[in-house]
Predict the 3D structure of the following.
Amino acid sequence: MKNWIYILFAGLLAVGCDDYLDVPTDTRTQLDTPEKIRELMVTSYPTANYAIITEFGTDNIIDNRVPINGFFLADGAFDRMDQEVFEWDDVKSANEQDSPYSVWEEFYQSIAAANHVLEAIETLKAEGNTENMDAQKGEALMLRAYSHFILVNIFGKTYKDPTASAKDLGVTYMTEPEKHVIMQYERNSVAEVYDLIAKDIEEGLPLIDDASYTQKSYHFSKSAANAFASQFYLYKRDYAKAVEHANAVLGTGDPTSLLRNWKNTYSNIITEGSVYISGDEPANLLLIPTSSIYMRRFWPHRYGWNGTGRSGVTDSGPNWSGALPSFQGWIWTAGQNYGAFHAKVYEQFEYTDKVAGIGYPHIVRTEFTTDDVLLNRAEAKIMLGQIDDAVKDLQYWTASHKVTSPLTRKAITDFYKEGRQYYVFEFHNTELSSQFVITAEQKPFIDCVLHFRRMERVLEGHRWFDLKRYGIEITHTIGIQAEKRTLTYDDDRRAIQIPSDVVGAGLEPNPREVNPIDNSDLKQLEL
């Protein structure tokens, strides 16, 4: 782990080293008032986009260099990193935007900021400040929990159960600000990380106060915090709590008015690229602006959302034919050679000099939405045996996405059955954990909710998490030789390797299989 001796957010904290340790920092940089604490929280959310390092490893992306009828359609990748991620190799080529390094760095910076806020709040209270800062404390705890959650799900293996996950490397759970230049760290297990996340959620969520925000879509509001909690407990397989937190967002009645209004709001793709990420959209619970060139990877380059990768998202569904109706007019293409991308990843460019044409590219992540919370609840209900209630939620989802035919249990079981390519997968859940049991009755409904989430979160990187959680094996066809590679359910590479800089600083890397050396060619050298 990089030894954070400062926080790169709005210059709000600064310390020096060597001779400068004795020099007082500018008074404006000290977290000595509630207002400064609030200002730090505004700039403390992670600015890295993790979509590329998760999405390109999934079955949503194909290699357009694989020949079709003797011809291949595309040539070079946007970046060598894209090839490394697609082939499930450790990323060695990039310390830049959208890389594992940037994700690690930015999310730990958010954690560092949250820890400084928490410490400053306690210091001010000890000094006699009576202003209520519970809302800022709650936000900091939720941000710390969320940041560790993303890190452990990218750089660690999937959560299995308390016993099995106690043996898997997670990430270092930071609960205090760093105050020394050189520190040695150890990685917590996945089980320990999940326990600490739960602790922060349970302490932080009750403190959240929406009245403390002027633009709550960019903060952990009550709804955003409950949305995160529903996802966390779903991954932890505490299904009752997942439903409880989803209900706190959606209520227990018809949630249609809270879902994205595909029927009336969206008219053209450029407008949609902005409206989709609007803070005025009721469905958007937490928006996170990131510094990212993610969209540029799709046009025109080697790896794309195309062919069989796109078929599993746009071909058909249990109660509609062809592409999901809400997708119509929503997909941009660079031609059949390169595939397509969804308007949700439309780049927002911030000009610093319009004449020179320079500035900063941004992708705004819709990190938590009501539509996704609805799918969390449906999945949790299926696992609780409440299948009829889950089907109601799935029906709400299809109806909100402009599907006019009703969704029934029979429609689901007829569609998601063995042999249905791209939609029905072999799960390795019991191999991951003997406690993770999916009955034959539940299986088609889980396939359905995973299909719906694949559409809902396409190109956002969450497909990778679902593939990991259920032990779904993935096959990628690579290059002009059409080499097939399969990532098995227990492959160590499902935990993306931590950045080489971090390994060089002494943190234990993720295990990797070492291929034995073939000495057959060396026999002639024997004396």
The chain has two domains: 1-49+97-209, 213-497. Confidence is low (pLDDT under 50) at residues 1-28, 516-527.
